[in-house]
């Protein structure tokens, strides 16, 4: 089991991260529809100026991805677009301990896209209130890259996906957290005969 100090540190880091993503700790808006957060992230400054988009344009995101970041090993899985939405899940493991889960959704909203996240501890205890979630409106859509406000996905090849998150350190500037994912097989296929032998 992780020590109480490690748990407290993890909660502080992830609390700072997701408060930043929710827009609570990001620097004041500039007088533009969008502005640069960090090297690889943008911030939406005018919610009325969101680009038009459909979720089918993010079909390249679908799949099972695993990779590394400064906060631990991450896994992310996205289902293909269907009925105007994409659903997925995300988790982080550090020092052989599960840190947290996310259930995520990208949906069509007002002719644009919004990414929504709900967070859970390892025991599935929710971070947000029952009917609450963290929202990331679409800022810009490109070829195999999508900028949500404070969160960017970029597929750099058939097998690599990168994600960038803008976070604000306590009493410090915005910094960028990078996840480098590699596409993984969904899982080993177990035949009926093999399954019988495992009984």
Account of the 3D structure:
This protein has one domain: Lipocalin, CATH 2.40.128. Helix content is 13%, strand content 47%. Strands 3-4-5-6-7-8-9-10-11-12 form a ten-stranded antiparallel β-barrel. The chain has a two-stranded antiparallel sheet with strand order 1-2. The protein is globular. With 199 residues, it is mostly beta strands. It contains two helices and twelve strands, in the order H-E-E-E-E-E-E-E-E-E-E-E-E-H.
Concise structural overview:
This protein has helices at 4-21, 192-198; strands at residues 34-38, 41-44, 63-69, 72-78, 85-94, 97-109, 112-121, 134-142, 145-148, 151-155, 160-168, 174-184.
Count, helices? 2
| Total strands | 12
CATH topology, what is it called? Lipocalin
- The CATH class is identified as Mainly Beta
Strand order of the largest sheet: 3-4-5-6-7-8-9-10-11-12
Summing up helix and strand content along with how strands pair, one would put the structural category as mainly beta
- Average pLDDT, all residues: 80
pLDDT < 50 runs, ≥5 residues: 4-13, 15-32
How would a textbook summarize the main sheet?
A: 10 strands, antiparallel, barrel
Task: Give the termini separation.
Answer: 31 Å
* C-alpha geometry: globular
Secondary-structure element string: HEEEEEEEEEEEEH
Domain tally: 1
- As a whole number of angstroms, the C-alpha radius of gyration is 18 Å
Helix content: 10-25%
Provide the β-strand percentage band. over 45%
Quaternary structure state of the chains depicted: single chain
């Amino acid at each position: 089991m992780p020590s109480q100090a490690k748990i407290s540190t993890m909660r502080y880091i992830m609390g700072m991260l997701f408060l930043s993503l929710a827009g609570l700790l990001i620097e004041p808006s500039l007088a533009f529809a969008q502005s640069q957060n960090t090297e690889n992230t943008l911030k939406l400054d005018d919610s009325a100026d969101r680009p038009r988009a459909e979720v089918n344009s993010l079909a390249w995101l679908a799949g099972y991805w695993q990779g590394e970041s400064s906060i631990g090993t991450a896994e992310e899985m996205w289902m293909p677009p269907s009925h105007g939405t994409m659903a997925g899940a995300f988790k982080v493991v550090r020092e052989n301990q599960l840190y947290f889960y996310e259930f995520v959704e990208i949906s069509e909203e007002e002719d644009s896209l919004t990414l929504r996240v709900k967070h859970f501890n390892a025991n599935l205890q929710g971070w947000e209130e029952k009917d609450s979630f963290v929202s990331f409106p679409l800022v810009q859509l490109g070829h195999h890259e999508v900028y949500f406000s404070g969160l960017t996905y970029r597929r750099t090849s058939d097998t690599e996906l990168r994600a960038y998150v803008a976070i604000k350190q306590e009493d410090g500037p915005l910094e960028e957290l990078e996840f480098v994912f590699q596409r993984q097989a969904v899982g080993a296929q177990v035949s009926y005969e093999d399954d019988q032998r495992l009984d």
